[in-house]
Amino acid sequence: MEDWSECLDVAVQIARRAGQVVACAAQQEKRVSSKSTPTDLVTETDHQVEELIISTLRHRFPSHRFIGEESSAAGVKCELTDSPTWIIDPIDGTCNFVHSFPMVAVSIGFAVRKELEFGVIYHCSDGTLYTARRGHGAFCNGARLHVSRERDVSKALILTEIGAKRDPATLDIFLGNMRKMLSAPTHGVRIIGSSTLALCHIASGAAEAYYQYGLHCWDIAAAAVIIREAGGCVIDTSGQHSRLNQSHYYYFVTNAGGVKLLY
User: Fold this and answer.
1) 14 assigned to active site
2) 136 pLDDT band (50/70/90 cuts)?
3) Spatial distance between the Cα atoms of 72 and 105, rounded to a whole number of angstroms
4) Among residues 91, 108, 158, 202, which one is catalytic?
5) Where residue 1 falls among pLDDT bands split at 50, 70, 90?
């Protein structure tokens, strides 16, 4: 297995730098527009931060490929190949960022031959850094992470997100899943507005499972490595262990104990 430690070190450096840009911009007036739906928001800072990350990485690693949320939304072809590929969400939680709600993160994943090698997630509001490298464990500010060992769904805390699509069919699926989760019963269901930070909470053992309808590769890439290296698993709703794909999927993330929810 190749050593990608240099790439990981650079990812940590640029994630911190990008996160500081986001934290500074959060206190300023923002220019906001929408993408696919009126609730799918983007700001000039999203574009600025993605350009900062990609230009820095391209200078260091000119042969590598890149998938970024905002460049993909602007029409750049989103293609996952066997080449070393950086998968970037410059601001996960843009709606939170617009409203200065503190659950905002920079997410950088790295894949080779379509296999995730490492992930870096930086919580912009408090400077918390989550990292993981395949086969080397997951860490929060240098402290080892491990998922919850709770197996009983009635004692579980479940995390989810609403997503940007609000058409009737999508809402029917979301509300149906929420009803099933709430009637399971569980200790509770939480929505924090940032899928990457929610997944980091699974890795840290603060919650037992996460479900979302329609995540994209930049939402899951870095977090999937962190979850797996913390002892959890990432599966699709058929129960299969999910491979990274450039399109969106229905993802279910659970702890090592395997809290069972059926949808």
Assistant:
1) no
2) very high
3) 19
4) 91
5) low
